[in-house]
Amino acid sequence: MSEARSADVVVLGLGPAGASAAAEAARRGCRVIALDRKREPGVPVQCAEFVPAMLGTQVKGLGCTVRQPIEAMATFVEDESPDLKPDFPGHMLDRAAFDAALVAEALRAGADCRFGAVVKRVSRAGEVELSTGEAFRCRVMIGADGPRSLAGRAIRRVNTQVVETRQVTVPLLAPHAATDIFLSAGIPGGYGWLFPKREVANLGAGVIPAEKARLKAIVSRLHARLVDEGRVGPQILSTTGGAIPVGGMVQPVGRLDETLVLLAGDAAGLANPVTGAGIAAAVHSGRLAGESAWQAVFHPEGSSGAALQYQEALEELFKPSLDRAVRRRAELLQSNPTPLALRRGWIAYPEYWT
Fold this sequence. Notes:
By secondary structure, the chain is of the alpha/beta class. The chain has two domains: 5-66 and 91-160 and 246-332, FAD/NAD(P)-binding domain (3-Layer(bba) Sandwich); 162-244 and 339-353, D-Amino Acid Oxidase, Chain A, domain 2 (2-Layer Sandwich). The protein is built from eight helices and 18 strands. It has helices at 16-27, 95-109, 150-154, 215-228, 279-298, 303-333, 339-344, 350-353; strands spanning 5-12, 32-36, 50-52, 66-70, 72-77, 83-85, 90-93, 112-115, 119-122, 128-130, 135-143, 162-171, 178-183, 192-197, 200-207, 238-245, 253-256, 259-263. The protein is globular, with a radius of gyration of 20 Å.
């Protein structure tokens, strides 16, 4: 291993959380190195690409990456007619373009963003070692490297529950402005979805890891149903998938020797355990992590306070909704859920919120 290069902040991951953190810390004057194993931002896409409309007020230039607006949510419970929630505004993104825009912002702020950088190890001394042998040390490490975060593992803050997902992109045969949700006892621990993107749609499902072997068949059945209904074409244009944390927020701070570690986005368990939505939380938590990193770097005597403020901010912003979702998800997993239980476990229904 070569001699470790020094930086104020090292960010693991350049998705929405990591890019937002890198931009915020660099903008405030930190020397930032940000690392991602992907060859280019957001590719391959491992996301259903829906975000709530309010994210547009938080991310500059979001409109350039929006592929279509969403107006409503239609929820299909088993074989029943859909329940329509008409006021459910949002955007379908080109996620690769979205990630690239956030990385461009980080670069403009002065962050050193490196792709194709595979992190081999995060040491107990706080050094980050790449597969090439190159190494980095830092005052603050921000773990934004997903639900199986190496930074999280190093400080023993691990997401213990995930769902596994599979998604295909298919032709959309008629204009559609709603996200379609499919709830069924046959999709254990998750749900199916059809999210439109103008002339194509993302169609997929998520299940508990024990049922991962059934995931391809579940998505194929949903695809066949929608083909029979004349809503989508039979061609599969692309396939993707990945893990989503569903156990709720993990403690997002820790230390490796003298290095402060902050977790953001999926690494901190901020994806909603029921819906799987995590982009907005990733952007927001990333910015907060970047700000806290700056405070720790330029005011080292208050680094413990900066870490505590970061944890408290995440708890105030996200923990109540995450805890509710954890409870609803646990209820669904206790037995073979009835349609009534499925409704209680989904955000579109009043029963979820009572």
